[in-house]
Design a protein that fits this description.
Number of domains: 1
CATH class: Alpha Beta
Largest sheet: 7 strands, mixed
CATH topology: Protocatechuate 4,5-dioxygenase, Chain B
Structural class: alpha/beta
CATH superfamily: LigB-like
Shape: globular
Helix content: 25-40%
Strand order of the largest sheet: 3-6-2-7-1-9-8
Number of helices: 8
Number of strands: 9
Strand content: 15-25%
Order of helices and strands: EHHEEEEHEHEHHHHEE
C-alpha cells in the first residue's frame, strides 16, 4: 500500500553544476525537494519507487544502482540510483534525465531508508495505462513510497521553452491545487492533449500517483509553486 509520496520537478537545472550562474534562483525549489524526501523517509517505507517521464526509448524499469550522468548537459557529473550490492552486475542502461535528477536528489539527502527502484514512463501514456501502472505500484509492498518526478507547463512566459500560452497559468494552478490537496479525481481528469500542448511532462507520473493512492487515504501539502524560466515547478508531499 502507498504510505507516502513526494512530487518534485525534474529539470537538470536543479543540479547546481548544470545551472551554473542560475543556481541561486532555484535554491528554494531545491530546499523544498529535500524537505519532501524527508517526508518519505519519515514514512518508513519498505520500498521506494522513483517514477519519471521519459522518451519511448527509455521506458521501463531501472534497478537500484543504475547510473546516470549530466554529460548531455555539458557537465561531467555522474549519479547512481541508490547503492549497488557488492555482488550485483552493473546495470546496462543509463538513467534518463528525469531519473538522473531524482538520483541526484536522493544522493544529496543521503537516502538509505529503503530499497529503490526506478521506472521510466512514456510522457504520452494514456490515462488508462497510468491507472494500470499506478495500481501495480501501490501493491508492490506493504509500505510503498513514490518519488514522482515531472514538471508542470513550459509555456508561462515569452521566453519559456514553449512560448507564452494563456492556458498555462490556470493549468499549473489547478495541478498545484490538486497535488496539494491529494485530489485523485482532479489528477485523473487532467486532459492529456492539453498537457501535451503545454509541454507538461508531469501529467503521466501524476496520474500514476493518483492510481497508486486509491483507497490509501493520504493527505497532501504543497511545499513549492513557481515558474522560473517560464516553466511550472511544483513540490508536494502526500502522507
Amino acid at each position: 500500500m502507498l504510505v507516502a509520496a513526494a512530487v518534485c520537478p525534474c529539470p537538470p537545472l536543479l543540479v547546481p553544476e548544470v545551472a551554473v550562474g542560475a543556481a541561486p534562483e532555484l535554491d528554494t525549489a531545491r530546499a523544498a525537494c529535500v524537505d519532501a524526501l524527508g517526508v518519505l523517509a519519515a514514512a518508513r517505507p519498505d520500498l521506494l519507487v522513483v517514477v519519471g517521464p521519459t522518451g519511448r526509448e527509455d521506458v521501463g524499469p531501472y534497478p537500484q544502482g543504475a547510473r546516470g550522468s549530466f554529460r548531455g548537459f555539458g557537465v561531467d557529473l555522474e549519479v547512481r540510483l541508490g547503492p549497488t550490492a557488492a555482488d550485483a552486475d552493473a546495470p546496462a542502461r543509463e538513467l534518463p534525465p528525469s531519473l538522473a535528477v531524482a538520483a541526484w536528489l536522493l544522493e544529496r539527502t543521503g537516502w538509505a531508508d529503503a530499497p529503490i527502484e526506478g521506472l521510466g514512463v512514456d510522457g504520452s501514456l494514456a490515462p488508462e495505462g497510468c491507472a494500470d501502472i499506478g495500481a501495480e505500484l501501490g501493491a508492490r509492498a506493504a509500505r510503498v513510497a513514490l518519488l514522482v518526478m515531472g514538471d508542470a507547463s513550459a509555456c508561462r512566459s515569452l521566453k519559456a521553452p514553449g512560448y507564452l500560452d494563456e492556458r498555462a497559468a490556470p493549468f499549473d494552478a489547478e495541478a498545484g491545487r490538486a497535488l496539494g490537496a491529494a485530489d485523485l479525481a482532479a489528477l485523473r481528469a487532467i486532459d492529456p492533449a492539453l498537457a501535451r500542448e503545454l509541454k507538461a511532462s508531469g501529467r503521466a507520473p501524476w496520474q500514476i500517483l493518483a492510481a497508486a493512492a486509491e483507497d490509501a487515504g493520504l493527505t497532501g501539502a504543497l511545499l513549492y509553486e513557481d515558474a522560473p524560466y517560464g516553466v511550472g515547478y511544483l513540490v508536494a508531499t502526500w502522507t
